[in-house]
């Protein structure tokens, strides 16, 4: 059963690019105002970001790894591959190590997002390089996609959203967590 406010959020999600209510939204629906704001922001960050799709998915996967968010990784590692991110990069991110053979843009996103999660900021060198390549909007989009998927990862983990039946746990625990 849904309240009218919850139904409005469901309708908004169904009318948008996702087309279905899944992932964190069942849990977020307990606060319809939060759920609607989150789904609206997420629709921009996922489908209209100024960051190219493969790089955006790399940022999402780095965040999923930081939170060991299994469902988030499951969903977005597939999307990253579909967007053209090499498997070797995903494998390294999953292991918590610097990926080999990244191109300049991949290295910049990896460095920016890894510094941001680990250090709670980025170096002047990284900021300057990101601004030169992606502009100020791109910097904000990288920060926002990382923050958004931190919220998603926390929601998925705390709500214990399960992986689909038969899907093995994709991320192993890191000791110590490499992104910190």
Give a brief rundown of this model.
The chain is mostly helical and 180 residues long. It has helices at residues 4-15, 25-28, 32-47, 53-67, 70-82, 87-95, 104-119, 124-159.
Describe the protein's architecture and organization.
This protein is mostly helical and 180 residues long. The protein has helices at 4-15, 25-28, 32-47, 53-67, 70-82, 87-95, 104-119, 124-159. The model has no long low-confidence stretch (mean pLDDT 92).
Low-confidence stretches: none
Topology, number of strands: 0
Q: Indicate the radius of gyration in whole angstroms.
A: 16 Å
**Main pleated sheet:** none
User: For the terminal residues, how far apart are their CA atoms?
Assistant: 41 Å
Helices and strands, in N-to-C order?
HHHHHHHH
How much beta, percentage-wise? Answer: under 5%
């Amino acid at each position: 059963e849904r309240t009218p406010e919850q139904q409005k959020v469901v309708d908004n999600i169904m009318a948008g690019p996702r087309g279905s209510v899944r992932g964190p939204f069942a849990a977020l629906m307990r606060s319809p105002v939060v759920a609607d704001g989150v789904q609206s922001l997420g629709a921009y960050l996922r489908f209209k970001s100024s960051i190219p799709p493969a790089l955006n998915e790399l940022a999402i996967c780095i965040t999923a790894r930081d939170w060991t968010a299994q469902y988030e990784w499951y969903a977005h590692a597939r999307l990253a591959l579909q967007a053209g991110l090499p498997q070797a990069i995903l494998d390294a991110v999953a292991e918590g190590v610097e990926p080999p053979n990244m191109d300049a843009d991949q290295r910049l996103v990896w460095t920016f997002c890894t510094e941001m999660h680990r250090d709670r900021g980025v170096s002047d060198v990284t900021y300057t390089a990101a601004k030169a390549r992606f502009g100020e909007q791109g910097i904000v989009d990288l920060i926002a996609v990382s923050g958004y998927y931190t919220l998603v990862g926390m929601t998925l983990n705390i709500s214990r959203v399960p992986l689909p039946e038969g899907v093995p746990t994709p991320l192993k625990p890191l000791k110590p967590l490499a992104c910190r």
